[in-house]
Every structure is written in structure tokens, then in C-alpha cells.
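ok posting inputs for the flavin-adenine dinucleotide job
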Amino acid sequence: MNPLELVGAEPGPAFTVTLDGREITALPGQTVAAALWAAGVTSWRATRGAGRPRGVFCGIGVCFDCLVTVNDRPNQRACLVPVRAGDTIRTQEGTGHGD
Amino acid sequence: MATERPHLAVIGAGPAGLAASLAAAAHGVRVTLIDSAAGAGGQFYRRPPAGLGARRPEALHHRWRTWRRLGDALAARVEAGTIRHLADHHVWCVEPVERAELVVHALLGPLQEEPVTVRADAVLLATGGYEKVLPFPGWTLPGVVTAGGAQAMLKGGLVVPGQRAVVAGTGPLLLPVATGLAAAGVEVAALVESADPKAFLRRPVALAAHPAKVAEGVRYGARLLRHHVKVLPRHTVVAAHGEQRLDAVTVAALDTHGRVGPGTERRIACDTLAVGHGMLAHIDLAESLGCRIDGLNVAVDEEQRTDVPGVWAAGETTGIGGAALSLAEGHIAGRSAAARLTGTRPDPHTWARAARSRRRAREFFAALDTVYAPPAHWTDQVTDETVVCRCEEVTAGAVRKAVDELGAGDVRTVKLLTRAGMGWCQGRMCEPAVAGLAGCEQTPARRLLARPVPLGVLARAGDPEDD
Ligand SMILES: Cc1cc2nc3c(=O)[nH]c(=O)nc-3n(C[C@H](O)[C@H](O)[C@H](O)COP(=O)(O)OP(=O)(O)OC[C@H]3O[C@@H](n4cnc5c(N)ncnc54)[C@H](O)[C@@H]3O)c2cc1C
Ligand code: FES
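and the output
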């Protein structure tokens, strides 16, 4: 059983967004992080120092590990930001400001 | 007329803030309930958003009936205009102004750029807490998440991070997390608990006094059995392995002193590690208001008042104790605030039931606290290369150097010397680890702002024209 089946979910129509140009299907109401997890992706940031991959850690907006660039805005917390049809999501390198 | 009623701002719409808002609104006070989340419920009653169309959200919850009662009552009060619910509002500061008024400063929406202010006659802090995780090699790998985070993503987003999980750390939260993941189709390879929950059996008085809690424990035990989850008490995760993401963990047995027993290590393949070592309270707003802090929690009296006039606090911000305690404290705080704001004498007899639940829940949590604890010698496992401050990528080696060679004796000095705790999360994630490595007690951090605030908003907040 998957989580959607467990709660008898009947989600609204799915839509697509892109992660680094690759198409991903998302469901209405999900956060960016939830949509990426559902697509099997667990990291979308490279740290500023060592360039190590990061994704969700606290899941509730406290740790800032899940920072991501959405529609050219860097430093969005993927665990808080709702995903919207057509979003362009990019792996965030360092500060996300190209330095 | 509704607008002439005294006005209480409640910050946090979890069990504590909900109970407080409902109690206050029922006793003559106009309430503005402010929360950063999109829906009410807090951590315990986190629910999937409407777009996901969950027909049986209760499958991921227990005590759902209580939520139905709270949620329905809130909807009725919002409809009647006695409670205003501001969702998606991140409060970054509460400021006392003249004439016994307080101003709540918030940022709107997930982008947190647009400022909003709310003026009130009194403020009730019900901001709950967040999870504490102590570091170990590999804990920054994708696939390693906090236990509560796994639960939040599951309850709120109906997603899981992988197919095979280990749930580890210490504390009662690990039980719903392990059973929740298992019910959602994740193979839970092990529940690794550093304490020995059987130690509870040596506290027969605590057990006999709380039959409902014992029954809850038994139910979790049965669910773990049904999902074939192997429970490893007195064990700990010593390392997480993987290159770009987690592919295994090493667990080991602990001896009676809390040290890893040599030769007891074994590797468990998994793509998910949900780990937590207890909870910490969100106290930033209370600290900046100058409220007295007791240890790492907001200090309150019998009526849940802080020592700052017009400021109440309830729920996990005043001490970690679970949803039932938060409900009881919230109710008492709401009643007390309503009485004092409407100029009536608070009569504790009228909330005796809530006071009794509060006393019992605190007793039970005090007993739990004597049982659940991270391994006494957890720092032994933290190699010098282990990143301790996840934001600034400060290693344990750098922290040790600051302590051993540069003479840092507290978290603040380590921070100045190493930048540990200076990143985005403002030290919330690494403070317990830095304190442990420095060999000192964790003390309140005195963060000035509860959220990062855009400079333009800060500049304008000082401008009287703005509010
Ligand atoms: C991630 C996580 C998951 C958990 N899952 C479970 C579980 O499944 N089962 C269980 O028994 N216990 C769980 N807990 C424990 C939980 O804390 C308690 O059960 C209970 O929810 C505490 O109630 P509360 O009202 O005191 O605080 P909370 O429920 O934490 O509510 C506090 C509310 O305040 C809001 N808030 C905080 N700061 C601000 C701010 N500055 N501005 C605006 N709003 C703010 C938060 O968004 C939150 O909604 C979890 C804890 C965490 C951290
Ligand atoms: S996962 Fe911690 S802020 Fe998003």
C-alpha cells in the first residue's frame, strides 16, 4: 500500500513541472519537496562549501537544508513552498546567486 | 459588539493554540489565531491539503475524534467572527508598544516577503517545538531525515522518501513514525532505540497511574509486530553510508554506560533513515519579549502566564510533553487570558479538569524522560570529519579545535570562532551538538528574530507610519 492508497486519496488532476529541465508529474496541494520525493528525487541542492547534495531534513521549515531555486528565485524552502503547474525547479548550487 | 471585545493574538495553531483560542473565544474575547502553516492542527494534526483529496486522513492519525471536535469548533468560531484565522503567517517578532498593547509582526506566505502586523491587547505563545538530532558520520546524506520530518511529509504530503527505512534515535515519537511509514508501504528494517523501554517496567507507579498510555504502548507494539519491524533497544546508529544518497547504516549495541560495545556493529541496507533524539521548544518570540526562560523552555505560572504582562504561553514552547498536555495547557491559558482581559477574576475551579490532565501528563512525561535519552557517550562516534553545523559546514574537528586549542568554553564562543550556528537555521540544528562537543550545557540562544526577515521589512518595521 502506498500513502495515497492508505488515505483513499482522490487527488485533483496531476500537472507537470520541470526539475533541471526534466519533466516531473506533481499533484495539487503538494509542496515542491513532496512532489520531488514522489518522483524519487531526494536531493536538489549542492552546499556552498563542499558541494555536497542535500534535500529535506526537518520537513517543517526549520533547518533550511531543502533550499531550492523555483522560477529563478533561489533559497526557497522546498518543504514549505506549494508546487504549481509549470514551475521551473532548479538544483541550487551554493547560495543560488551564481557565485 | 464583537469589535469591542478585548483582543487576544494566539501564535501557533497546534493543539495548544487551538484549545487556547476556543477557550478564550468562548469567554468573551476576540481571537486572532496566527500560524505559518496553510491549515490549522500543528504537528500532531498535520493533514494533507484539500487538493490531494484524502478520504481517510485518519488512517495516518490517532485521536482523530479530538481533531474533528477542534476543527469543527474552529470553523464555527471563524464563521461567527469571534476567531480570525491567519494561515501562512510567519511571526518573526512580538513587540510591546504603549498603552499595554502588543504588536505581532509576521511575513506572509511561503516566500515570506510581505509584512503584516496585528495589534492585540494580549499575546498567547503556542509555537510548539522542533526535533533535536545529534550528529554522526553521514547524517547529512540525502535520505537521512528527522523522524518528525518523515512523519510531517507523510501526513502532510502523502509521500515517503524511499522503500526501506531504519527509524532510530530515542523517544516516544519513534513509535508513530515507524508504524506510520510501515502502514504507508515502507519496509521498516529496524527501530533502533538507544534507551531500554523495559526500564519503564521498573516504574510501576508511573505505569499504574496511566493505563491509557500503557494501552497506547501496547497498541504500537502490536503494530510493530504486525509489520515485522525488528526493535533493537539499547542500540544506536553509529554511521550512515552512501555517496550521493544513503544506502546503508551501521548500528551497534550500547553497554550499560551508554558506550558502543566493540564488535557489535552491523550494517543494515536502507535508503531512508528517520532519526531523532527528542524535541526542543521554539522560544525565540518569548526570549525577544524578555520572558523568563527556565532551562530551554518558557517559564509559566499555574495560569500559564509568563512573567511579562499580557503574555501567556502554552504547549511545547513551555516544555515538551505531547499533544494531550498541549491541549490542557492551551485550555487553561485561554481561560486565564479571557478572564484577565475581560476584567473578571480567574477561577481555577472552573478549569479543574484541564488542570488535572495537565498534572497527570506532566508526571507521565517526567517519567518518560528518565527512560528515553541519547547514548551518554554519543560524542565518541562523532569523527573529526563529521559536519556538525549543516548550514555552514563546520566539522566536529573545527569545534574541538576551538574548545581544546582556543579555549572556547561555551556555544557562543565556539560560534564566533568557527561560524557553527551562524547559517540560515540560526543554530537551531547544531546547538545541542556543539554544546555536547564543547562539554557544556545547552543554554537559550537569544535569537533576536524568529525568522530571517528581508532588510526592507526590518527597516519599515521601525517606522511608526507602517502600523
Ligand atoms: C515534525 C514533527 C512531527 C511530529 N509528529 C508527531 C506525531 O506524529 N505524533 C505525536 O504524538 N507527536 C508528534 N510530534 C510532537 C508534537 O510536537 C506534539 O504532539 C504536539 O503537536 C505539540 O502541540 P503544540 O500545540 O504544543 O505545538 P505544535 O503542534 O508544534 O504547534 C505549533 C504551531 O505553531 C506554529 N508556529 C511556530 N512558530 C511560529 C511562528 N514564528 N510564526 C507562526 N507560526 C508558528 C507552527 O506552524 C505550528 O503549527 C511531532 C513534532 C514535530 C516537530
Ligand atoms: S526540510 Fe528543513 S526547512 Fe525544509
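notes: Residues 322-342 of chain B form the longest helix (21 residues). Chain B is about 30% helix and 20% strand.
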